[in-house]
Amino acid sequence: MTIPRVLLGLLIVIALSAAAFVAYAWRLEIAPVERPAPGGFDRAQVSRGRALAAIGNCATCHTADGGTVLAGGRPFKTPFGTLYSPNITPDVETGIGRWSQAAFARAMREGVDREGRHLYPAFPYDHFTLVTDADNQALYAYLMSQAPAKASSPPNALAFPFNVRMTVAAWKLLYFKQGPYRQDRAQNANWNRGAYLVEGLAHCGACHTPRNVLGAEKQSQRFDGADIDGWHAYAINARSAAPTPWTAEAMALYLRSGWHQAHGMARGPMAPVVENLAAVPIEDTRAIATYIAAATERARPGGKVAAPVAALRKPTPASADSLVSPRDVPAGSSDAGAKIYAAACATCHEAGRPLPFGGIDLAHSTAIHGESPRNLINVTLYGLPATAGEASAIMPGFRASLTDPQIASLVHYLRADIAKKPAWPGVEPMIREARSSDTAPPLYTTPGTQGAPNDPSQGGVAW
Amino acid sequence: MVGIRVNGKLHDLDIDPETPLLYVLRDDLRLNGAKYGCGLGQCGACTVLIDGRAAFSCLVPVMLLEGKEVTTLEGLGSADHPGLLQQAFIDEQAAQCGYCIPGMIMRAQALLQDRPDATDDDIRRQLQPNLCRCGTHMRIMRAVKRAAAAMQTVSATPVRGARL
In the predicted model, is pLDDT for residue A63 greater than 50? Predict the structure, then answer.
């Protein structure tokens, strides 16, 4: 008698838990509305929404290569399968044209769509949950004022059980903490504005924080740097490998223009980010920079900010034939990497031409000081594609002229002799992976000097 | 001594291994198809093929070329016997001043060897790194498409070292 009773009890507990979970996870549909008239929004609000959408990089993820801006369809390959970003233009059939303001706010705050389905956290609502009601209203006004585009994204291709959206509710139970942002009274308004944007709408941690096996950001390793999409997002906390410590001023310049002479170029998935940030109010870029630069500070001996490793060389006026002999390569050096650097790289990287048109002095580049050689390898192979229609930094790729062993010896030389850091492990397989057409990194055009808003449908082309 | 293989011929040259390939082609081998434009890998006038891939010869020190096959404009045909792409550029009168054309032809050659069915978009993307100041871009497009069509009907002979 006792065993069936225990079993029965167990069944009841399981049934009750299941019912409790469903009750927790269940979300009601929010009734569809008539598409709001695009001209019906306050202009200033729409304009604020446009800047906020740039900070949130909405168009970068919600635009397919060659597709209409914000019309979705960009694939995201995850360990759980491939997701496609949805159309967020106000098209009534394929977009969010029938979403009310409340439905939009719920998606941002809770990660649930208008119909009541849990959204996959590839949509970074774990960050967007911090966005204020006023900012959500501005974003809604902006999106609803855009031209509707009829475009259906391909259906997601996820493995079981991830294709069941209820599993996302369980994920949220484990990892999702609902907002909004709470001010840190110990910090000033600028820092708080930066924290609100960085942790919220800008969702910097989505790339710069490593994720666990269930795809959640590891809070214990916040901003430690992570591999993403064939590129490495550098550490932006005290582990930052930047040889010159970041200042808020340098970071703001970098975030607006895509380069800084003491740090290097933004490229890979960071290129569209800075291109977007060039179009937002400068106070917001400064706030973001203040918060991130503070995060990269570390205790230094004597409490002083460490001096840059090497003084910046003064740029000389641009000249095409200013060939210089590189200082780092001893004459007659037998090292193959040193010879390749001297013959193929130093002519630009040590020419002293001003950035962004001359190559950065690599002693300042985070790419050779950082935890992963991935970005260095990608840029060596594919270069920095130019931006169409305006002046921008470019670098030719060397995949036709450098073999894998030649790139490996170059990478090892830069790491050992210029960064003076211990060798990276696994360089050779990483080069093979970056070169293979199946696993080549996606390329992005570098931001132009004008800071024109990016058209994310235009992918980069390797030189 | 540095040994480099150009258009199927091996040359042993007594030169500094750091010398850019472009200088060796023009000054030592008298192959003047590839042009000096910027010397920075930014204009494409010096484009040649290395193992079938387009590369800026101004940025390639010859020491990197051991075991590799270089193809220059001269490797595609001659004035008397132009190759398919060269003939297409002549037919479309795609050159104005002509300085960029060898680079355009070589980069287009790399594309068509890989993808004879290249679309307009493929051609535009491929030729993006090469600059033309005269503005004959539309004729260049037509020439590359003409050559592509010719390659699909006549089974084209790929150049040596082509990745096919």
Answer: yes
**Of the candidates A344, A385, A386, which has its C-beta nearest B61's C-beta?**
A344
CATH class belonging to B84-153: mainly alpha
Distance from CA of A258 to the nearest CA of B (A): 20
**Closest to A426 in 3D by CA, of A441, A439, A408, A414:** A408
Long-range contacts: B29-32, Cβ < 8 Å, 24+?
Answer: B31/B6, B31/B7, B31/B72, B31/B73, B31/B74
In three-state secondary structure terms, A159 is: coil
CATH architecture of B2-75: Roll (3.10)
When CB atoms are compared, the residue of B17, B18, B50 closest to A401 is: B50
Residue A105 has pLDDT above 80, yes or no: yes
The chain A residue lying nearest B57, using CA atoms, is A401
pTM of the model: 0.87
To test the contact with chain B by mutation, choose from A401, A437, A461 the residue with the greatest count of B C-beta atoms within 10 A, namely: A401
Task: Give me the interface pTM, i.e. the ipTM.
Answer: 0.87
List Cβ neighbours of A332 (8 Å cut-off, separation of 6 or more): none
Contacts with A391 from chain B: Cβ below 8 Å: none
User: Average pLDDT for residues A444-462, to the nearest whole number?
Assistant: 55
**What residue spans define the domains of chain B?**
2-75, 84-153
For residue B42, list chain A residues with Cβ-Cβ distance below 8 A: 394, 396
Residue A453 near residue A69, CB atoms below 8 Å: no
Using a pLDDT cut of 90, give the percent of chain B over it: 87
Do residue B56 and residue A344 have CB atoms under 8 angstroms apart? no
* HEC-encoded secondary structure of B122-158: HHHHHHCCCCCCCCCHHHHHHHHHHHHHHHHHCCCCC
